[in-house]
Amino acid sequence: TADGRMMAFRAGAALCNLEMPNIHAGIKYFNRGGQATWTGVLRDPAGNPVGPYVDKPLHDYGDITIEVNKNIFNEYAEIARGPVYMDFKGSTRQEIDDMRMWLSHEGNSTLVRHLDEEGVNLMTHAVEFESHGITLPLSSGIVFNEKAETTLPGLYAAGDEGYGGMAGAAVFGRIAGQEAAAYAKTQPSGAMDDAAGQVKACEDLFQRLLDRANPAHWTEANSALEQTMQDYCGYVRSKTMLDAGLTHLRRVRAHVNEELGAENPHELMYCLGAINLYDLGEFIFVLAEDRKESRANFKRHDYTMPDVRLDEKRHIISQKDGQIVLEWR
Fold first, then answer.
1. Which residue of 64, 147, 307, 308 pairs with 293 in a disulfide if CB–CB is 3.0 to 4.6 A?
2. What is the value of pTM for the model shown?
3. Among residues 30, 26, 49, 54, which one has the least CA distance to residue 38?
């Protein structure tokens, strides 16, 4: 929801590489797809494997094609050879049951229940896979060092708010806890009086959202943002599209500021998430326009080659005296 990133940014920490897109993959229309847990073979409609690695289910490892090229599903659709299916024929009942168990452990219990409700027998039915929309990659988020320290003294980051995947979350989570505890011992007890103005501003915002008559729902705000990001800052970017998209996003954001509201605390939480996502979306537009190259999944029609001078650098966004600052570090 961008909550962690935006709280850190507003407090004074730097963010990096937000404009770099990542593509994930999994079962179609289920974003929590458990990509690495599926053990079948990716096949085209004629039954041919789409990758060179396996031609029968490999229960221990699955079809590595999905790891090598997460965009293969879009590519097959573009050349009229799709859809692409995950096929389990040849699997034993025990192998299917094991896979379903691990899908549930990975947070896909709703998906497993849906398959049962629809009578989908994975021993006889293939399921369609897709490339999911753009997400933030592991190299983006809150800037922190080997001690999990952000650029703001006393603030630490780990996991999805930084970078490094699940292994990085475990390692840096432990490091962050140790470092934060050691830092806290050197500091005087904090006084909330210094933050009274910020607390009051937050209270006023919450009350405005709760008191607003005939409010726009948070799902409307999210939908407008998703459409804007996809249409103007999608897989392929250019200055003209980015400029138009940023103008449109700021126009929609003005409506969010004036019309978004909540009928209860649960909706209030989602409204605040939507506001944070709009801020993050604006940062992505600004950083994408400033990155004048093409690299990895970041594609610009007007700058088609990578800038080798940036190979080892991160694209940093921070604020100073209320103004946005961009730099390469």
1. 307
2. 0.84
3. 26
Amino acid at site 244: A
**How is 76-99 classified by DSSP, letter by letter?**
HHHTT---EEEE-TT--HHHHHHH
Spatial CA neighbour of 20 closest among 300, 302, 301, 278: 300
Location of structure tokens 């991160």: 314
Residue-wise pLDDT tens digits, 119-170 = 999 999 999 999 886 666 667 899 999 999 999 999 999 887 876 667 778 8
Instruction: Tell me which amino acid residue 129 is.
Output: F
For residue 26, give the H/E element and its range: strand 22-27
Contact call for residues 83 and 76 (beta carbons, < 8 A):
yes
**C-alpha span between 113 and 213 (Å, rounded):** 39
Long-range contacts of 105-114 (CB under 8 A, 24+ apart): 106/32, 106/34, 106/37, 107/32, 107/34, 108/30, 108/32, 108/33, 108/34, 108/37, 110/32, 111/27, 111/30, 111/32, 111/33, 111/34, 114/30
Q: Whole-angstrom distance between the N-terminal and C-terminal Cα of the chain?
A: 26
